[in-house]
Amino acid sequence: MEIKIKYTTPDREVIQKLQKALKCHPVIAGLLADKGITSADEANFFLNPDYSRLSNPFELKDMDKAVERIYTAAINKEKILIFGDFDADGVTATAMLYQFLGLVEADLSWYVPHRTKEGYSLQLPHIEMAVSMDVDLIITVDCGIGSHEAVEAANKEDIDVIITDHHEPDTSVPKAFAVINPKQADCNACLEYLAGVGVAFYLIMGLRKVFRNNGLWEKYPEPQLSEYLDLFTIGTIGDMVPLVQDNRVLCVAGIKRIRMGLRPAIVSMAHTSRLDMDKLDSDDISFKIVPRLNAAGRISHARICVSHLTCPARAQTETTAVLLDELNRKRQLIEKEIVEDIERRIADDPSILDNRIIVLWDTRWEASVLGIAASRLARKHGCPVVLLNSKDDIAKGSCRSINQINIHEIFSKIRNLLESFGGHAMAAGLSVRKENLDRLKPALTKVLNLFCTEKDFQPVQTIDAVIKLSDITPELVRQIDMLRPFGTGNPEPVFLIENVWVASSIIMGGCHRKMILKDQSGEHQMEALHFNLSDTTCLPEFFPKLMVKLKADKFKLNHVQGVVQDL
After folding, report:
1. Do 552 and 447 reside in the same domain of the chain?
2. Torsion of CA 37, 39, 44, 49, to 10 degrees
3. Does residue 80 fall inside a structural domain?
4. 127 and 230 in one domain?
5. How many whole angstroms separate alpha carbon 64 and alpha carbon 185?
6. Helix (H) or strand (E) holding 476
7. What does the pLDDT look like over 455-467, one tens digit per residue?
8. What's 387's domain CATH number?
9. What's the whole-number mean pLDDT along residues 289-304?
10. Predicted confidence (pLDDT) at residue 502 exceeds the cutoff of 70
């Protein structure tokens, strides 16, 4: 499907006002104005955020109940079990809460389930395990909002459960001692954008205050909240939640914290990923750090990551970082084989793409990597993708959506066909009985036809500004970098350059093109990279229109690179 080009139209008067007040490049003023920033005060806060406007943690529903219960458990040495999820968001949240409560010598243990053997979230066998451990209090992080049966079982065993989660709730929430989830209908905190690690961070904010009010920090050294912002940032960026408001404030500070090299685990992962700690940014977290954390849960066990992130010994974290690197390579190979298998099926049977949704299953596919494979296929084919492993009586899998098509809401319309489902608007997990697999695509197609239009499926590329090669300078890129971290809710700007020629080019790595671009006069030039070309035999020497992102070259001082975006 043809990509629709959309141009931003920020108010010219606002641009002029911001440019004058900030003494910034007009392109930067335009980018700020397009985000709805209209005053110098708002702009300065966005460019230089601080903690002064953070939300009050006690605005989250049940926060007061949760922190008082945890305080009581900590001082009375009740046994506390922190129960986390197996992705980057879950392991960072688990590590964060475990380290914080360890400061007051709480009687602590943590547990992360095996992705394929146990499945997602708190379940009945976990309550049996908690009973055998004499656990008094379970605190979930990044999971639990759908664990009705498990919570009921815990209640019968006199085990209190505090749920902290950010996934979409169903029509009701479990009858836990406390449920902290900003997406609950009756929660008015306006923190729906938090990841699981974000909810855990706000729990720590509340706990620190209650511990202070009760004199606990007179016995133990009170921590700075900044000590946990490296974990907050990795989990938040890894879960692809909107990098807006409090998330942006804390991630900006978190990246500065990461660059300080204070957590051995992150330093070791940066080393194996060949990253420069001094220049590490949100892209490095998204494409280098997070995949290695996720690989453990997909290929081995996510408990490796919690132990890694909480380990104080650099020698030990170096060993674990090498292991995570190896697991990530294995994950990439498995994912590649699944995607290639599906692409062969589509080539042999194009009807797979009918009805604007792909639904496929196989007994051989590794269930743990189906979400990543679905994501790649959804981007390429421009439609939601559902992939399942069907080797057992109940097939389990993942779905990734596109644009603003809320797949969680769509699954809720066919809940009678599913054994279970959960997740977010753009990514969800599901299980379905094997005998119902053939009914799945027709049911999803019917719902999509009822609630979606052709417009919902059309890919849209937003152009933030039309610029000339002569506009592109190291200073412009430096000012663009002040808008980081980029991600969901704060996308990296895309620029359109018109009428540029290729002065020279080479092919690198078999499918990447490195070019020197020039304008008609030949006076202005820029290096540009075009990655993952499908055809390297018929390459244009002239571009009437070219979409690029602009970056500082990490290897050459005061040097700008353009990264070409596919039309």
Report:
1. no
2. -50
3. yes
4. yes
5. 18
6. helix 474-481
7. 899 888 899 999 9
8. 3.10.310.30
9. 96
10. yes
| pLDDT exceeds 80 at position 376 | yes
Rounded average pLDDT over 475-494: 93
In a domain, 550, yes or no: yes
| Residues 220 and 98 placed together within one structural domain of the fold | yes
Dist CA 379 CA 359 (whole Å): 15
d(CA 179, CA 132): 24
What residue type is 214 in one-letter code?
Answer: N
H or E stretch at 151: helix 148-156
C-alpha closest to that of 408 among 379, 377, 383, 429: 429
In a domain, 47, yes or no: no
Mark whether 301 and 275 lie in a shared domain: yes
Chain mean pLDDT for the chain: 95
Please indicate, yes or no, whether the overall pTM of this predicted structure exceeds 0.90: yes
The terminus-to-terminus CA distance of the chain in angstroms comes to 11
Residues 400 and 426 sit within 8 Å (Cβ to Cβ): yes
d(CA 181, CA 171): 14
Residues 268 and 223 in one domain: yes
Of 119-123, 411-415, 457-461, 541-545, which range is least confident?
A: 457-461
In angstroms, the CA 300 to CA 306 distance is 13
Q: Which helix (H) or strand (E) holds 148?
A: helix 148-156
Domain ends where: 455, 485, 502? 455
Total structural domains within the chain: 3
Task: Give the residue numbers spanning the domain of 412.
Answer: 349-455
Check which CATH number belongs to the domain holding 535 and give it. Answer: 2.40.50.140
What proportions of the chain, in percent to the nearest 5, are helix, strand and coil?
45, 20, 35
* Same-domain status, 303 and 394: no
Cα→Cα distances 45→21, 65, 74, 111, 252, Å: 13, 33, 38, 39, 12
Q: How far apart are CA 142 and CA 93, in angstroms?
A: 7
> What DSSP line would sit under 201-238, residue for residue?
HHHHHHHHHHHHHTTGGGTSPPPPGGGGHHHHHHHHHH
* Among candidate residues 477, 454, 464, 493, the one with its CA nearest the CA of residue 526: 477
* Residue 126 domain-assigned (yes or no): yes
